[in-house]
TrEMBL record:
Cited InterPro entries: Carboh/pur_kinase_PfkB_CS, PfkB_Carbo_kinase, PfkB_dom, Ribokinase-like
Family of this protein: Belongs to the carbohydrate kinase PfkB family.
Protein name listed in UniProt: PfkB domain protein
One Gene Ontology molecular-function label: kinase activity
Organism encoding this protein: Pelosinus fermentans B4
UniProt-listed Gene3D superfamilies: 3.40.1190.20
Keywords annotated in UniProt: ATP-binding, Kinase, Nucleotide-binding, Transferase
Pfam families: PfkB
PROSITE patterns reported in the protein's UniProt record: PFKB_KINASES_2
Domain Carbohydrate kinase PfkB stretches: 3-305
Length: 315
């Protein structure tokens, strides 16, 4: 049974093999993309048991996604196959400067029609962490209901709730989205926002204001990504003592694509928490995996094995 459970949509990712606008591209490389499955894959490569709950279409892309993620050692027992809706897809340009443009084709996808019936009570029995992102509940009212049902079940079983807001402008609906994400945050034990996401949620760019706001909601671990520079962290102890600090990022000589870096960061932090590492070491591990992720095109292609991570950290 998995130690970490994730839930969300994964799509087939088609990456352009030539630079420039997609209208002129003639060939693509196929990959799998999905924030939650990225985390499951990264944890599995480090030797942790991870499970991914989702729905795919009864189509070749869905089959490809399931085989790919299962091939990474992730448990896919709770993937359902929809006979009525297709697997989502996204297209990514290749850019020589800055992040590439991404085009999503996920409306009315199989995953967007998930409902709480996808959850099985016993699947949560031996898990330690439920990892949720802000993407999944934004897909549809059914997904929102499923996300909150998963959180309730995880809390009943004594799991830690990890929450990465992972805000996507294509799914952002202003105050409604902010309300939903804050409601999820109030249920979380661990929150992993980027600095701009934290500003959207609590209205400040000041780290002390951000950590205070999240701790006041009952969140124990507040870890904020500060881009390539590093990450702030803060932990509220049982006696209300606050332990906080900052871990610098790792130097990257050439950034290829930043997509997947935040999920890689979550992999590092969650793996450290699972292994009982001090929070600063867990955050340093997150910075390391995030830096490895930006050196390659695929979302999770840069995530290391345990041996690779140890060698990278030792250098």
């Amino acid at each position: 049974m998995p130690a970490v459970i994730t839930i969300g949509e994964s799509m087939v990712l088609m990456i352009a093999e030539q630079s420039g606008p997609l209208e002129f591209v003639t060939s693509f490389t196929r990959k799998v993309a999905g924030a939650e499955s990225n985390v499951a894959i990264g944890l599995s490569r480090l030797g942790h048991q991870a499970g991914w709950i989702s729905s795919i279409g009864d189509d070749p892309f869905g089959t490809y996604i399931r085989k790919n993620i299962r091939g990474e050692g992730v448990d896919t027992e709770l993937i359902t196959v929809s006979p009525n809706y297709r697997t989502g897809m996204m297209l990514k340009e290749q850019s020589d400067i800055g992040d590439p443009k991404i085009y999503y084709y996920r409306e009315n996808s199989a995953a967007s029609h998930m409902n709480p019936s996808a959850l099985i009570d016993s699947y949560f029995d031996n898990a330690k962490i439920l990892h949720i992102t802000g993407i999944f509940p934004m897909l549809s009212p059914e997904c929102q209901e499923t996300a909150f049902a998963a959180i309730a079940l995880a809390k009943e079983k004594g799991l830690l709730i990890s929450f990465d807001p992972n805000i996507r402008k294509q799914l952002w609906r202003g105050e409604e989205s902010r309300r939903i994400l804050l409601e999820i945050a109030q249920q979380a034990d661990i929150i992993l926002p980027g600095i701009q996401e934290a500003e959207l949620l609590v209205g400040s760019l000041e780290w002390k204001d951000i950590s205070t706001a999240f701790h006041s909601k009952g969140i124990r671990f507040v870890i904020m990504k500060d881009g390539a520079v590093g990450a702030y962290y803060s932990m509220k102890m049982a006696d209300d003592e606050i332990i906080d600090g900052y871990e610098k990022g790792f130097e990257v000589k050439r950034v290829v694509d930043t997509v997947g870096a935040g999920d890689g960061f979550a992999v590092g932090v969650l793996s450290g928490i699972l292994e009982g590492l001090p929070l600063n070491e867990s955050v340093r591990r997150g910075n390391a995996i995030g830096s490895l992720a930006v050196m390659v095109k695929g979302d999770s292609d840069g995530y290391p094995t345990r041996k690779e991570l140890d060698e990278y950290l030792s250098r």
